[in-house]
Amino acid sequence: MSSSSSTPSACSESHTVSVQLPDLLSSCTPFELRANRHCRSVSQASEAWLRDAGLNLGVEWKGIKVGLWAALCYPGADLTQLRLAVDFLSLLVFEQERERGHDGFGCGDGDENEVFDLISDRLSRAAYKSPAWYMRFHRSMRAYRDARQRLNSLDSTCIPDLETYVDLRRNASGLRMVFHLIEYAGGLNLSERASSHPILNKLTDQACDLIAWSEDAVSCAKGMTPSSRLNIVPVLMKDRNCSFGSALTYVGTLVKQSADAFLATERLFAACVDPAVMNDDTRRYVRGLRDCIAGSVNWLYETERYLGTKGNEVRAFGWVFVPVLD
After folding, report:
1. 319: which strand partners?
2. 51, 85, 255, 324: which could join 70 in a potential S-S bond, CB 3.0 to 4.6 Å?
3. pLDDT value of residue 233
4. Could you give the maximum distance between any two Cα atoms of the chain, in Å?
5. Strands, E, within 99-161: which ranges?
6. What is the pLDDT of residue 112?
7. DSSP secondary structure of 168-233
């Protein structure tokens, strides 16, 4: 069944439609899926730490499976490295859920301050070992903060054009920080020349787009109403003057194009002969991007954050029931 062809508006009434999500996993078949063997123990330790820190995680926290996301993104990390990654990703998810007013997510003492302060001491130790890495990480965190504020100020009555949204979504996703953790989790030392190389930056943007747009598509299952977080689907509906179903299908095309573009850029980057740019650490970083792509897109069907307990069913058939507007 197809969805309504109208663009969402604040005065419309909602109803539920059945729609098929794009086959995102097929676009990611070139990227090997690997998992870290420390997933279970680190996930349990991280959750206990979060609760001891005074965060109200809510009854649904276990189902979000942040530890699994980290284990799939950083399959080669040791216990200490994976623990920081799980803690950081948990705080990232926690803050985003709190922003959306998710019931049960909050600080036990009522303090709504910066949750990332909880790991500032460990980030500082990492900064001491690699100041250049920390500066890049910190810049991305500032960009994330700014983009979240801008994104949260938008709604169904204030939809940006596609180019504006894409640039905003890259920073607001937090994925740039997720990618910086590839260096930390792998013990890598990217030179400034490598980290600022235009081809590597292009690879990072393509990986970011692929994951963010996949998340946008799957998150539609939670509804397309005025209270929903803005994502690429209503942006495309406005930009292309198309229906919800058509926009969702086009997201699948964009994801496939991003995957193909990533592979083409990867081949171009591999041909670089400058040893200051292309070395073992750089190659391992690119492999880390591949891990993040495979891990993140597969995790969208494993976590209950978007599809509830229907992940396996949606993975197999793609159909979801979506609250939308007339």
Report:
1. 20
2. 85
3. 93
4. 60
5. 106-107
6. 45
7. HHHHHT-HHHHHHHHHHHHT----HHHHT-HHHHHHHHHHHHHHHHHHHHHHGGG--STTSPP-HH
| Band (128; pLDDT cuts 50, 70, 90) | confident
Task: Print burial letters for 98-119: b (CB count within 10 Å at least 16), e (below 16).
Answer: beeeeeebbeeeeeeeebbebb
Tell me how far apart the alpha carbons of residues 237 and 242 are, in angstroms, rounded to a whole number: 5
Judged by average pLDDT, the poorest of 46-50, 93-97, 126-130, 205-209 is: 126-130
**Three-class SS of residue 111?**
coil
Q: Would you state the structure tokens that stand for residue 309, as one six-digit string?
A: 């307990």
Grade residue 67 by pLDDT with cuts at 50, 70 and 90: very high
Give the integer Cα–Cα distance in Å for 225 and 307: 17
Structure-token pair, residue 244 = 């919800």
- pLDDT (average), residues 145-151: 92
**Of 173, 298, 314, 185, which is closest to residue 231 (Cα–Cα)?**
173
φ, ψ (nearest 5 deg) of residue 169: -65, -35
